[in-house]
Amino acid sequence: MLSAQRINEIAQALHQAMRERRAIAPISETDPGIEVDDAYRISRAFMGLREAAGERVIGKKIGVTSPAVQEMLGIDQPDFGFLTDAMWCRDGVVDTRGLIAPRAEAEIGFRLKSDLKGPGVTPGDVLAATESVMACFEIVDSRIQDWRIRVCDTIADNASCGVFILSDDEVPVSGLELKDVCVTVTKNGKLLSEGSGASVQGAPENAVAWLANTLGEYGIPFQAGEIILSGSLVPLADAAAGDVFRLSMPGLGEAEARFT
Fold first, then answer.
1. Where are the alpha helices (DSSP H) in the chain?
2. Phi/psi at 99 (nearest 5 deg)?
3. What CA–CA distance (Å, rounded) separates 207 from 197?
4. Is position 1 within any domain?
5. Total domain count for the chain?
6. Which of 47, 80, 116, 176 could cross-link with 222 by S-S, CB 3.0 to 4.6 Å?
7. What phi and psi values does residue 227 have, to the nearest 5 degrees?
8. What secondary structure letter does DSSP report for 32?
9. Residue 182's domain spans which residues?
């Protein structure tokens, strides 16, 4: 395990990299003895620095859930991170000047109506605690050079979260089969990818249950009102200033990400 001093040093380096839009060397290379628990400690310290700077946690996210994304990044397990109010692009405009190497992915978001805390949370518990679901873009971004990440790198780096965009529509989850929800994504007017909820650990609520139980091991609950991003239905796609991404999820809504 890494020392408390080293945990804080890495967290501060990630925070500075985010503020200066300057990536750092992979943590798995500078600290080859890092373990998953170390990475989660770094993640929480990193988020603590962001909160001290004025950001407010409004939700959580699960990442690297689909086989397509795991294969793309060379990672064999999911991870989690925190969402803050500063990450929410309410107008759909993504300012690339604040990011390093953005990539877009299409997800199903959950808004909770009641608290959840693992262990023992089931997919049924997740659905019962959900107020509504919506379509969303997560714009992932890595503070690690050239996306040369292993699982501990992305965990420490707040699950490589950049910003996110929610659809205007939110719909009740009752009666929906989220595994059957389909998404179509276009980039600059051309078809980019298609996917379904089944690509996220069989169903998005399965991924959210995993996240609730994993967070529970660290004493972190889901709280009523929070937004939970459940993982990408499609492969990640590079984004740059001038790009326009659109997604459509029949029954859930549409979203647009305009990169400036």
1. 4-20, 27-30, 36-52, 67-73, 123-128, 151-156, 204-217
2. -125, 165
3. 10
4. no
5. 1
6. 116
7. -100, 130
8. T
9. 58-259
Nearest-5° angle of CA 159, CA 92, CA 48?
35
Q: Is the residue at 71 inside a domain?
A: yes
Share of residues in the chain with pLDDT > 90 (%): 86
Helices then strands (H, E): number in the chain?
A: 7, 12
Query: What are the tens digits of pLDDT across the range 15-24?
Result: 999 999 999 9
Question: Residue 108's domain is classified under what CATH number?
Answer: 3.90.850.10
Half-sphere exposure of 228 (CA within 13 A, CB side): 32
Residue 22 to residue 1: CA distance in whole angstroms = 27
How many CA atoms does the CB half-sphere of 117 hold within 13 Å? 8
Structure-token match 């139980």, residue found: 213
Q: pLDDT (tens digit, 9 = 90+) per residue, 75-117?
A: 666 788 999 999 999 999 999 999 999 999 999 999 999 999 9
Residue 140 in any domain: the answer is: yes
Query: 143 in a domain, yes or no?
Result: yes
Reading the chain (260 residues) residue by residue, the pLDDT tens digits are 999 999 999 999 999 999 999 999 999 999 999 998 999 999 999 999 999 999 999 999 997 766 666 666 666 667 889 999 999 999 999 999 999 999 999 999 999 999 999 999 999 999 999 999 999 999 999 999 999 988 899 999 999 999 999 999 999 999 899 999 999 999 999 999 999 999 998 999 999 999 999 889 889 999 999 999 999 999 999 999 999 999 999 999 999 999 99
